[in-house]
Automatic annotation (TrEMBL):
PANTHER family the UniProt entry points to: GLUCAN ENDO-1,6-BETA-GLUCOSIDASE B, GLYCOSIDE HYDROLASE FAMILY 5 DOMAIN-CONTAINING PROTEIN
Residue ranges occupied by any Glycoside hydrolase family domain in the UniProt entry: 116-371
Gene Ontology CC: cell surface; extracellular region
Source organism (scientific name): Eubacterium ventriosum
First and last residue of the signal peptide: 1-34
Sequence ranges of Polar residues compositional bias: 581-601
Keywords of this entry: Glycosidase, Hydrolase, Signal
UniProt-recorded name of the protein: Uncharacterized protein
Lineage: Bacteria, Bacillati, Bacillota, Clostridia, Eubacteriales
GO biological process: glucan catabolic process
Length: 1188
C-alpha cells in the first residue's frame, strides 16, 4: 500500500477524491481525455511520450517527430563497482552488508543516501545538458528499491523506494533529457558480475534463470516500477536486464523466454512505454521479435572492443561489423548501443559516434564519471580516496564520500572524451508544443529536378533535393512566426532548419540542426504565380536554391540573389489539415528571437547597468556584448574595477554561439608572448570560452566548465602582433538566463621579457634559433608569498602516457588546500584545483633537456614551499641550451629503453635524462609464474597499509594499479594476485605482467602490502575482472626483488598513433631500480642524478626495399634489416630530409611494418629513417616515392 501511496502522492486532491481506487490499481489517473503523469512530476508532456515507429523512435506516442536518444550512463550512482567508484569492496551487496552489520540498517541507508546526494547533483544534470545529451541511462538494482525484512524472510518494497529515481527523472525532464531505467542487478544476480551488485565466482553457480524465487521477485519489481512510471513521458524506456548472460556471456532461448515474461508483466500495467531487450553482444543473441509477438521494443547491444584497445583500424572495423550485423539481422526495431567506450583513441570516438549518428542508432557511453579510471568516464571524481566499509569510521566514510571527494571534478583524458561527445550529441529535446501526427507535415520538392528535399543521414547532413519519394527524412513541419516569417521543423531529427551563415562554409548550407528558432531559422515564403514557393532567408535576404551543379547534385544553399528555377519549390501538404505558410496569425511555437532593445528596469539587478543589444559596451578595460543576430540575448553589467567585472545574463538563446561575450583589452608589446589568467565564478553551471581576438582570430576557443557557484581559473598563452591584446570570453552557447558571471584577478604576464631566475646554479640560455624568443623568465604567481605553515604537496611524480603526455600527479597534504601553482624551472606555467595536471608542450619551450617541475600548495592567497622533481623533455626539435653539463649525453631524437642499455646481470637505473618511449619493467620486478614466498615477514600493526588501491590501466599500461603511500618511509610494496606474489614496486603503482593472470578470464583479487624494515603491512585489495587472452607459452624468470627506491624518471611523451606493439607485457611498473642508491624523491628543487652503466651501442640498421605510396593513402609499407640484440625499433617520417621536424613516429618490434596515419596523406615529399632502440645512429634517410 505504501508503494501505491507513492504513486498517488503528487496528484491533485480533486482527482484523488474521485479516482482513488482506480488510480491506485492502474498506476495512472485519467481526467477527461488527458492522461496525468504518475511518478515524478516532469517538464515533458504527453506530446513528448516516445514510442517506436519501425526502426526509429517518435514522440506523441510514435506519431510525431523522430527523436534520437544519445547520451551517457549514470554508472556508479546507484550501484557501485570498486574499479570505478570510491569504495574498496567486492560488490554493492557486500558494501551494504558491511555497513549494516557495523552501524545498523538506518545508518547504512543514511550513508548510502549521503553518497548518492554527493555523487550526482543538479550541476551534473547541467553538465549533461550543456553537452547536448538527450538521454541518460540510469543503472539500478533491486537493492535500491527493496529491503530485506527478516520477520517475513523476504525482500519488501522500501517506504521511500522511488524518492531518488523520481528526483532523477524530474531533473532530467526539466532540462529536456529523457531517462532509460536500467535494471543492472536482478534478485540473486542475473550474471554474477560485480556490476549486478552481487559477485558469484563460479559460472555454474549463476542460476538466476532456473531460480523461480529470483525470477518471480524480478517480475514483481518490474510490475511495481512500470506501474509507478506508467504514462510518465520523461521515461524513454525500460531496460529490462543488463548483460543478462551468465558471467556476461551470450544469451539464448532460456533467456528470451524470461524476457517474454518480463514483457507481459510490464504490459499488464503499462501498455505504452518502450521495452528494451539486451543481447548484449551480438544480433544472434536475440530472437526475431515476431517470435514472441513483441511490439514497441528496442534491441540493445554493448560495444567494447577489447581486442583493439589501441588499434584505430581495429576499432573502426569492429564498429562497421556490428552495424552491418544489425542491418543484416533486419529485426525491424530501433537499435540502442547501451554501453560503449573507445578507450583512449580520439579518432575512434569520433568515427564510432559519427557512424552511429549516420545510421540513426541510439547510444549511451559508459560512463559519466569514474574514480579517475582513465578513459572510462567523461569526468573524474575530485579525488581518488576510497572507503573501506569493513574498518572506516563514519567520519572517514563521510569524508571520502563527501562533495569534495566524489563530486564531479576535471574532465578525464585531458578533455578528449568530453570534446568528442559534445560534437556528436544531438542536443537536448525540443519540447513538442502539440500532439503531432502525419497531417502536420509537408514535403518540399525542387522544381528544377522534381526531387524531394531530404534531411539526409537522420538530419546530420546538409539538405539535398535528391529523393523520388517522401518518407520521414523528407517531411517538414511549417511554423508560422508572428513577424510574418516561417520556420521548418524536420521530422528526421526534431530540429529546425537553419541557413548557416558562418565562416565554415561560404555557401550558406541549410541544415536541420537547431533546437530553437533564431534569425538563421527564419524564412520568408514567397508564393509564385505558378504555385511554387521561393524561400528567402531572414538574414541577408538570400534565396534558398537547389544547386544541381554542386558535387552533391541538388544540395540546398542560401545564396540566390533572385528567383529562378533553382529557387522554386513545391510545398506538398499531407492533407487539407496541414498548416501551410501564411495560414495562421498565431505562431505555433514560442519564439525566442524577437529581442526588445529595452526592457523593464526590474529585470536588471541592483547596481548593474543594462547593456544595449548588438553593441559593445565598454567599462574600463572591459566590455560586454549581447547579440540577437543568431538568436536573442540581453543582460546587464557591473564594473567594480578592472580586477572585478560582472556580466548578468537576462536572456540567452541556448545553442547559439557568441550571443553573450565579454572582453578585456590592454596595450602590450608587439611580438611578445603573454600568458593570461583570470578567475571566473558563475551563479549557474555553464561553459566559458577564452581566446585572443586580435592576433589569433583562427585559434580555437578553449572552453572550461564552471559549476554552479564554483570558480575556475581560465588560462591562455598568446603571441601578440598588433601592440594590443584583446581577450575574448564567450558565454552565449551554454549559459542560462539568470546567470551572473564574475571575472576577477585577471593577469596578463609577459613571458618573453628577461628576468633573473631563482636558482642556486647559474644557467646561460641561448636562443634556439635566430629571431625566436626563448622563455627564460620567472613569472610571478598569483600568490607570491610563501608560508611555512602551509603543507607542501606530497609525492610529486610524472604519470604521463600518450593520452596525457605531460601529466604530473601528487597527493594533497591536507583537505583544505584550495589550489596548486605549478612551475617549470621556476616559471609559473599553470594552476590546478586538483592534485594533478597535464601541462602543454609550451611549458618546455626551451627545447629537449632537464626541467625542474615544482608544485606549491595554495591556501588563503599564500603558497607552501615547493615539492619538485627533475623531468627530462625530449619532445622538441632542438636541445635546451645550458652551461650545466649533464651526467650523460643523449641525442635529442634518440629514446633509450632501459632493457637495451643495461647489462643483463646488473640492475641499473637510468639517469633522469633518459626517457623510454614505453613503460619498461626492470628484470628485478618480474614475478615468476610459480607462487613466490616474499622475503618479508608480516607486521600488520607496525607497518601501515597502502591507501586507495585502484585499477588505473589504459591501452599503454593495460594492467596498471595505483595507490597512495600511507607514510613517506615505506621502502617498497609487494603486489599479490589471488594471494600469489606477482611483483614488487618502489613507487605506489605497478603495471603487472599478463602472466599474473595465468588462470584466464575471471575475477582476481589484487592486493598490495607496504614493506618497511623487512616487514609487511596488512593487505589493501580490490577485485579485478581480467578479460584478455593469456599467451599459451610463458617463460618465467625468478629474480629476487630489490628494495632500492628510484628517483622519478619520465617516460617519453609520444604523440604518434598508439601501437599495441609498443606495450611490453612483462612490464610491472615503469620504474627502474638501482642497487647503488636508496635516494627517494623529496620536496626539494635540487636536481637528483644517478649513475649509469652502459653497454655497447647497437649497430645501425638499413632500409632494404624501395618505398612507394599513393598520394591519397595514409599507409606506408616499410622493410629494414634486423639488428642483433635489438628488441624494438623507432621509425620516423618527416617532410624534411634533415628531419628538422618529425611528422610521424612509431616504435615497432618487427622488421616489416605498415605505418598508418592521417598525417601521411596528401604529402608530396616524405622521408623515412629507422633506428634500433638503444643504437646511436639512424639508418640512411630514404625518400618515399609518392604516386598520384
Amino acid at each position: 500500500m505504501k508503494k501505491l501511496q507513492a504513486i498517488g502522492r503528487k496528484m491533485s486532491a480533486g482527482i484523488l477524491t474521485v479516482c482513488l481506487t482506480v488510480g491506485m490499481l492502474a498506476g495512472t489517473f485519467t481526467s477527461g481525455t488527458a492522461e496525468q503523469v504518475s511518478g515524478a512530476i516532469t517538464g515533458f508532456t504527453s506530446n513528448d511520450f516516445l514510442k517506436c515507429y519501425g526502426t526509429s523512435i517518435r514522440n506523441n506516442y510514435g506519431n510525431g517527430n523522430t527523436v534520437h536518444l544519445r547520451g551517457t550512463n549514470a554508472g556508479g550512482l546507484f550501484v557501485q563497482e570498486s574499479w570505478m567508484c570510491s569504495t574498496n569492496v567486492r560488490d554493492q551487496k557486500t558494501l551494504m552488508s558491511n555497513l549494516k552489520d557495523r552501524f545498523g540498517e538506518n545508518q547504512m541507508y543514511s550513508l548510502l543516501d549521503y553518497y548518492e546526494d554527493n555523487y550526482w547533483t543538479e550541476s551534473d544534470f547541467d553538465n549533461c545538458k550543456n553537452l547536448g545529451m538527450s538521454v541518460i541511462r540510469v543503472p539500478f538494482t533491486y537493492m535500491n528499491l527493496y529491503r530485506y525484512d527478516s520477520s517475513k524472510n523476504d525482500w519488501v518494497l522500501r517506504d521511500n523506494a522511488f524518492r531518488k529515481l523520481d528526483w532523477f527523472v524530474e531533473q532530467c525532464s526539466q532540462r529536456g533529457i529523457y531517462v532509460i531505467l536500467d535494471l543492472h542487478g536482478a534478485f540473486g544476480s542475473q550474471n554474477g558480475q560485480d556490476h549486478s551488485g552481487e559477485v558469484i565466482d563460479n559460472v555454474s553457480d549463476v542460476t538466476f534463470f532456473s531460480n523461480s524465487y529470483n525470477k518471480n521477485k524480478t517480475l514483481e519489481l518490474w510490475k511495481t516500477v512500470a506501474a509507478h512510471f506508467a504514462n510518465n513521458p520523461a521515461v524513454a524506456a525500460y531496460d529490462t536486464l543488463n548483460e543478462p548472460g551468465e558471467k556476461a556471456g551470450t544469451t539464448g532461448e532460456k533467456h528470451w523466454n524470461f524476457y517474454n515474461e518480463m514483457y507481459n508483466t510490464i504490459r499488464s500495467v503499462d501498455p505504452n512505454h518502450i521495452i528494451i531487450m539486451e543481447s548484449c553482444w551480438g544480433t544472434s543473441n536475440l530472437p526475431n521479435p515476431q517470435k514472441y509477438g513483441w511490439t514497441n521494443v528496442m534491441y540493445e547491444y554493448h560495444h567494447y572492443t577489447w581486442d583493439y584497445i589501441s588499434d584505430l583500424d581495429g576499432q573502426k572495423k569492429s564498429c562497421d561489423n556490428i552495424i552491418n550485423s544489425i542491418n543484416n539481422a533486419n529485426y525491424g526495431v530501433p537499435t540502442y548501443i547501451g554501453e560503449f567506450t573507445c578507450f583512449g583513441l580520439e579518432d575512434a570516438w569520433n568515427y564510432v559516434m559519427n557512424r552511429f549518428n549516420e545510421e540513426g542508432i541510439n547510444y549511451t557511453s559508459w560512463s559519466y564519471k569514474t574514480n579517475n579510471s582513465g578513459s572510462w568516464g567523461i569526468y573524474n571524481e575530485k579525488n581518488t580516496n576510497k572507503v573501506n566499509p569493513t574498518s572506516d569510521s563514519i567520519d572517514t566514510i563521510k569524508n571520502n564520500w563527501g562533495a569534495n571527494s566524489i563530486g564531479t571534478g576535471n574532465q578525464s583524458s585531458n578533455g578528449m572524451i568530453y570534446n568528442s561527445i559534445k560534437k556528436a550529441m544531438p542536443g537536448t529535446i525540443v519540447f513538442a508544443n502539440k500532439a503531432l501526427t502525419d497531417d502536420d507535415y509537408i514535403a518540399i520538392k525542387a522544381q528544377i529536378s522534381n526531387k524531394y528535399v531530404c534531411a539526409d543521414n537522420n538530419g546530420q547532413s546538409n539538405l539535398v533535393a535528391n529523393r523520388t519519394s517522401a518518407g520521414g527524412w523528407e517531411q517538414f513541419r511549417v511554423i508560422n512566426n508572428s513577424d510574418g516569417t516561417v520556420s521548418f521543423q524536420s521530422r528526421a531529427n526534431n530540429k529546425y532548419l537553419c541557413a548557416v551563415f558562418d565562416d565554415t562554409d561560404k555557401e550558406n548550407p541549410v541544415i536541420a540542426r537547431s533546437n530553437a528558432i533564431g534569425t538563421w531559422e527564419k524564412f520568408y515564403a514567397e508564393k509564385q504565380s505558378d504555385g511554387t514557393y521561393a524561400l528567402k532567408t531572414y538574414v541577408d535576404n538570400y534565396y534558398v536554391q537547389a544547386d544541381i551543379d554542386d558535387a552533391t547534385s541538388g544540395i540546398l544553399h542560401a545564396y540566390g540573389a533572385s528567383v529562378g528555377t533553382w529557387e522554386k519549390f513545391l510545398l506538398e501538404p499531407a492533407s487539407d489539415k496541414t498548416e501551410m505558410p501564411g495560414q495562421t496569425d498565431n505562431p505555433s511555437v514560442p519564439e525566442t528571437t524577437v529581442a526588445p532593445t529595452t526592457k523593464s528596469a526590474e529585470t536588471v539587478p541592483e547596481g548593474y547597468t543594462e547593456a544595449t543589444v548588438n553593441q559593445w559596451t565598454p567599462s574600463g578595460k572591459w566590455g560586454c556584448y549581447f547579440g540577437n543576430w543568431s538568436g536573442t540575448a540581453s543582460g546587464a553589467y557591473k564594473w567594480v574595477s578592472d580586477a572585478d567585472y560582472n556580466i548578468y545574463v537576462d536572456k540567452a538563446n541556448k545553442g547559439s554561439a557568441w550571443l553573450v561575450q565579454g572582453s578585456y583589452t590592454d596595450n602590450v608589446t608587439n611580438g611578445h608572448t603573454y600568458k593570461v589568467t583570470v578567475d571566473v565564478t558563475a551563479s549557474k553551471a555553464c561553459s566559458v570560452g577564452i581566446k585572443e581576438d586580435l592576433s589569433n582570430e583562427k585559434d580555437l576557443q578553449v572552453y572550461t566548465d564552471i559549476p554552479a557557484n564554483g570558480t575556475r581559473t581560465l588560462t591562455g598563452t598568446y603571441t601578440v602582433t598588433n601592440n594590443q591584446i584583446k581577450v575574448m570570453f564567450e558565454l552565449g552557447q551554454n549559459v542560462d538566463a539568470g546567470t551572473n558571471i564574475n571575472f576577477k584577478n585577471i593577469k596578463i604576464e609577459d613571458t618573453t621579457a628577461s628576468t633573473t631566475k631563482e636558482s642556486t646554479t647559474p644557467t646561460t640560455v641561448a636562443p634556439t634559433t635566430k629571431g625566436t624568443a626563448v622563455v627564460t623568465t620567472t613569472v610571478a604567481p598569483t600568490t607570491a608569498v610563501e608560508d611555512d605553515t602551509i603543507p607542501a604537496p606530497i609525492g610529486l611524480t610524472y604519470a604521463g602516457n600518450e593520452t596525457l603526455p605531460y601529466y604530473f600527479a601528487w597527493q594533497a597534504p591536507t583537505s583544505d588546500i584550495e589550489s596548486y601553482n605549478v612551475y617549470v624551472d621556476g616559471r609559473l606555467v599553470a594552476t590546478s584545483n586538483t592534485a594533478a595536471i597535464n601541462l602543454t608542450a609550451d611549458a618546455f619551450a626551451n627545447g629537449n633537456g632537464d626541467y625542474v617541475v615544482s608544485v606549491k600548495s595554495v591556501r588563503n592567497g599564500k603558497e607552501s614551499k615547493a615539492t619538485s622533481i627533475t623531468y627530462t623533455y625530449i619532445g622538441g626539435t632542438v636541445d635546451k641550451p645550458t652551461t650545466v653539463a649533464p651526467t650523460t649525453t643523449v641525442a635529442p631524437t634518440t629514446t633509450v629503453a632501459p632493457t637495451t642499455t643495461v647489462a643483463p646481470t646488473t640492475t641499473v637505473a637510468p639517469t633522469t635524462t633518459v626517457a623510454p618511449t614505453t613503460t619498461v619493467a626492470p628484470t628485478t620486478t618480474v614475478a615468476p609464474t610459480t607462487t613466490v614466498v616474499p622475503t618479508t615477514t608480516v607486521d600488520e600493526d607496525a607497518v601501515p597499509a597502502p591507501i586507495g588501491l585502484i585499477y588505473a590501466g589504459d591501452e599503454t599500461l593495460p594492467y596498471c594499479f595505483a595507490w597512495q603511500a600511507p607514510t613517506s618511509d615505506i621502502e617498497s610494496y609487494n603486489v599479490y594476485v589471488d594471494g600469489r606474489l606477482a611483483g614488487t614496486s618502489n613507487v605506489p603503482n605497478i603495471n603487472l605482467s599478463i602472466d599474473a593472470f595465468k588462470d584466464g578470464k575471471k575475477d582476481y583479487t589484487i592486493s598490495v602490502k607496504s614493506v618497511r624494515g623487512g616487514r609487511e603491512s596488512e593487505a589493501t585489495s580490490v577485485t579485478y575482472s581480467f578479460r584478455d587472452e593469456v599467451p599459451t607459452t610463458v617463460v618465467p624468470t625468478t629474480v629476487a626483488p630489490t628494495t632500492a627506491a628510484p628517483t622519478t624518471v619520465a617516460p617519453t611523451p609520444d604523440a604518434s598513433t598508439p601501437d599495441a606493439s609498443t606495450t611490453d607485457a612483462s612490464t610491472p611498473d615503469g620504474t627502474t631500480t638501482d642497487t647503488s642508491t636508496t635516494a627517494k624523491p623529496k620536496a626539494t628543487t635540487k636536481k637528483v642524478t644517478k649513475k649509469v652503466t652502459k653497454k655497447a651501442s647497437l649497430k645501425k640498421t638499413k632500409i632494404t626495399k624501395k618505398i612507394t605510396k599513393k598520394l591519397s593513402s595514409k599507409k606506408v609499407k616499410l622493410t629494414f634489416k634486423k639488428v642483433m640484440g635489438a628488441k624494438k625499433y623507432t621509425v620516423q617520417v618527416s617532410k624534411s630530409k634533415k628531419f628538422k621536424k618529425v611528422l610521424y613516429k612509431k616504435t615497432v618490434k618487427k622488421k616489416k611494418v605498415t605505418l598508418s596515419s592521417k598525417k601521411l596523406k596528401n604529402k608530396k615529399k616524405l622521408y623515412v629513417r629507422v633506428k634500433a632502440v638503444g643504437a646511436k645512429k639512424w639508418s640512411k634517410v630514404v625518400k618515399i616515392k609518392v604516386k598520384k
